[in-house]
Amino acid sequence: MLCYLISSDDQWMTLPSIPAGLAIPPGLEFLLPCAGAHVRQRTDMIEMFTGIDTPNKYAIYNDQGQFMYYAQEQQNFGGFLAAQYLGDNRGFYFTVTDGLGRQAFSVSRSSKLWTDCEMIVEAPPGIPAGFVSYNSSLCSRGVLTIWDAGRNPVLSVPFPSECDCGGDRGYMVMTGSDIVGSIVRKYPGFMKQAFTNCDNFALDFPVDLDVRIKCTLLACAIMIDFIDYEDKRN
């Protein structure tokens, strides 16, 4: 699975040293020195040629382009059927593993059939690291609200207008009215967009942000991919 998600040319990030007395969930050490990341969806040839919706896969890199994690959507038979009939509205569950083979965190989202939904990020799995709620209205395309493990609101990510004009599309990361970062979907070009539904996201955020919130922002890129791009391949 790891060989499928990353290239032999990829450079792997070395495990950073952790300051004494700083408690970090295993696997999230890689996020400590990061001021950004890249989330890159991987092409599935079966899906590309048959139209059958297969589990999503992403490789995650730091702001220097070094490999940190791979994320794999887990599906049972019921999940497979939900993918075919509910598409991007399905609930999902991802395991996210680092280069050492540790499951660093997990990401789960409820179904979005009724527009609003919630995502839970656990690091390590079983221990909440953050929550993300998606709410929309007639006057807004929606906003992601990021909550810490104690259910305190920390950040928000408003959705931009529907038109992306064929270029990069930015989702601002905000605290109150201040912009502190961004999640940018990189425009893949007409031909690639026409034949695949694979998307790349570039994130930037404060380097001193808690690593639990950083991994929750990584999960937000996956959630944005589902909401805005997952079912746009046709």
UniProtKB/TrEMBL annotation:
Any one Gene Ontology molecular-function term assigned to this protein's record: phospholipid scramblase activity
Species annotation: Pristionchus mayeri
Tree of life domain: Eukaryota
The family this protein is said to belong to: Belongs to the phospholipid scramblase family.
Any one of the GO CC terms: plasma membrane
Keyword Lipoprotein carried by entry: yes
Lineage: Eukaryota, Metazoa, Ecdysozoa, Nematoda, Chromadorea
Name listed for the protein in its UniProt record: Phospholipid scramblase
Needed co-factor(s): Ca(2+)
